[in-house]
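Please produce the structure of this protein holding flavin mononucleotide.
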Amino acid sequence: MKKVLIAYDSRTGNTEKMAELIAEGVRISGQEAELMKISEIKNDKALQGYDAYMFGSPTYHRDMTGGMKTFLFLVQKAGLGGKIGGAFGSHTHSGDAPGLIFDTMQYVFKMKMTSLGSFNMKEDVITTGEGIRACQDYGKAIAEEASQ
Ligand SMILES: Cc1cc2nc3c(=O)[nH]c(=O)nc-3n(C[C@H](O)[C@H](O)[C@H](O)COP(=O)(O)O)c2cc1C
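Below is the modeled complex.
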């Protein structure tokens, strides 16, 4: 069984909900998903031992959160080159954070990023049938890429 880490930041719970639904998708695919708030991850050792990584942040002021910026410096120390990756987040209008995180994972950490690209969802869609399915599908796709 492949292990997927889903690490996220969320101020009002929307990106957290996405993370939970993405984890469901991973589990539906028969792989193991571990959910963690980035504030719980204290050192780069905690990032070892996974086959795929998905990082989530909402967009505030057209940027990822300050917590996610600090977290990405920790990720750099973990040396995740070649690992499968994805990035996601909730927003209302511009949704910049997932793309910024995705690019860092791809170009700086040299991770093998999902062909789906980054995953942005408007906050009012997350708990609709369409939103739930789309989040689960993102989790399923990464789980399948990890198991190839
Ligand atoms: C002060 C403030 C600034 C925001 N800036 C943006 C923004 O630049 N672009 C955007 O798409 N959404 C923006 N949002 C909306 C949030 O991204 C949205 O509410 C998101 O669902 C919050 O996710 P969370 O519940 O995981 O924290 C902003 C919200 C607040 C309160």
